[in-house]
Amino acid sequence: MVRQLLGEPDLMRSDPHFPTAPKTRLYLVERVEAAERSEEFRAVAAAAARRSAGARAAALRRRRAVLARIAAEPVDMPRLAPRELAALAVEHRNRRDEERASWRRGHVAAPATVASAEPGALERWQVDYLRHRLTRYDELLAELHGSTGRAAAEELLRRRVHAAIAEAYPELAQECERQLREREYGPPRG
After folding, report:
1. pLDDT, one tens digit for every residue, the chain (190 residues)
2. Is residue 93 packed enough to be buried (19+ CB in 10 Å), middle (13-18) or exposed (0-12)?
3. What is the rounded distance in angstroms from the CA atom of residue 78 to the CA atom of residue 94?
4. Using CA atoms, how far apart are residues 120 and 139, in angstroms rounded to an integer?
5. 3-state DSSP call for residue 76?
6. What is the rounded (10 degree) CA torsion for 168, 170, 172, 174?
7. How far is CA 77 from CA 81, 84, 135, 160, 167, in A?
8. Cα–Cα distance, 169 to 190 (Å, whole number)
9. How many CB atoms lie within 10 A of CB 118?
C-alpha cells in the first residue's frame, strides 16, 4: 500500500542498531498525509479491511473445524487389570527414561520397578502410559501441527483423554485432575 500510494521514498537510512539490516524507507509527513486524504487511499484501505475480515472469518472457520474434529474423535480407553497396567506403565516409563538419556546430556537412565516407585509416581506413570500408548493422543497432536486453533484443540483433547482415563480407572481420577491442573497453572510452588 505504501509503495502503491507513495512511490519511491524521500530518503533511505541505515539502521543505527543493525547496520546489516535493509535500509529504512522514509517519507515526508506532508506526502503521507496527502496520500491518506486521497480517494485512492480510501479505496485501497477499504479493500484491505475486507481482505482482513475475510481472513479472520476463514481462520475462525478453520479453528471451529479443528475443534469439532477433536470433539468428535472417539476416545476409547481399554480396561487393563491393575497389575498389568502397573507393569506396562513402568516398562513405558523406563523406555522413555532410556530415550531421554540418549539425547539429554548428563541424564543417566535409572530403571524403576513397581515396588521401587515413589508415592504418586506409579499413578503418574500409569496415566502417562494410558494417554500416550493406549489412545491416539500423540498421533492427533501431530496432525494438529500448524493448524489454526491448535492450542485450543490440544487442550480439548487433553481434557477428553484425561476424562476417559478417570472414567475407566477411577483410582487414577485424582492424578488426571492433578496433571490437568499442573498443565493449566504450572507445578505447585513450595
Report:
1. 899 999 999 999 998 889 899 999 999 999 999 999 999 999 999 999 999 999 999 999 999 999 999 999 999 999 999 999 999 999 999 999 999 999 889 989 999 999 999 989 999 999 999 999 888 888 888 888 888 888 999 999 999 999 999 999 999 999 999 999 998 888 777 6
2. buried
3. 22
4. 27
5. coil
6. 130
7. 13, 15, 7, 11, 9
8. 29
9. 8
DSSP string, 19-39: TTSPPEEE--HHHHHHHHHSH
Contact residues for 57 (Cβ-Cβ < 8 A; gap 6+): none
Q: Which residues neighbour 52 within 8 Å (Cβ) at sequence distance 6 or greater?
A: none
- Cell 504450572 sits at which residue? 186
Residue type, 138: D
